Give the backbone structure.
Amino acid sequence: MKKLTILLYITLSVVSCSSSQNKKTTKNANVVKDYAKTITADELKEALYIYASDEYEGRETGEPGQKKAVEFIKNHYVSVGIPSPIAEGDYFQEIPASYFSNNIKDSENVLAYIKGTEKPDEVIVISAHLDHIGISRNDEINNGADDDGSGTVAILEIAEAFKAASDKGHGSMRSILFLHVTAEEIGLHGSRYYTDVDPVLPLANTVANLNIDMIGRVDPKHENDRNYVYLIGSDKLSKELHNISEAVNKKYFNMKLDYTFNDDDDPNRFYYRSDHYNFAKNNIPVIFYFNGTHADYHKPSDTPDKIQYDLLETRTRLIFHTAWELANRSERIKVD
């Protein structure tokens, strides 16, 4: 009789735990949609019209416009109450001029951070570059609305969504680092400084990097089928990451995930040309989100009025959902 009682107790405990886990999973599935809805086209547009305005003078690395850009990013995090992992009130990872070549002045990455509730030492990094190419020889400003103003404001909205979740008691299990890197346009220097010189949060604890570089426009290939985004790198280091990405998209969005530029023989070599690569070379799984190039790429005509804000909203929500899934899984994704 005693053995039977013990067996019954164990069985009920297992069922209870399973039921509790299922309820938790369902609850997470419901709440993530609510927080994703806080990411809106209107807020993305409002931020981008500031960030890609003439006042920022094309955000060239080390120049006054780039300094205004980092202050804009910092002030956003301060205003919504998201701290820095560097020190209280210090959001800038300083990069000295000596790190650059060609007389580039000192610059800085901007870091903000939400600490995980259960696995705080494990980190999901969401990145985008904050710089652009500055002013042309004929004194025209390259505003860089798509490149990479779109990625920058996307991270700000994603950060707000995670903060809203945390404030409501739905903080993610793992920590989230919002990483805005400088000097991408002159050779991925900002992200390389973070990974190779001063990884503020240890690379060994970095689960994945989701990198956003141009997600506000449509390229010529997709003019008649705009519900897409290019994904690069998702299966290079972790098939599990790729499968999670696919499953999240299928469950919530059903966008076309275009892997054209993910081909190892892609002549554009985009896999090596944005900031995710400095994480990938350190064996950290990555996804690079990209809308492809267009006629305004690296030209003064890359302006905020040409951004398709409804599409920017959808892509930003996709990235948020993917980050949420990675941050709340019981086990960190495996590197193949």
In short: Helices lie at 2-36, 41-51, 64-80, 145-167, 189-197, 239-252, 276-280, 309-328.
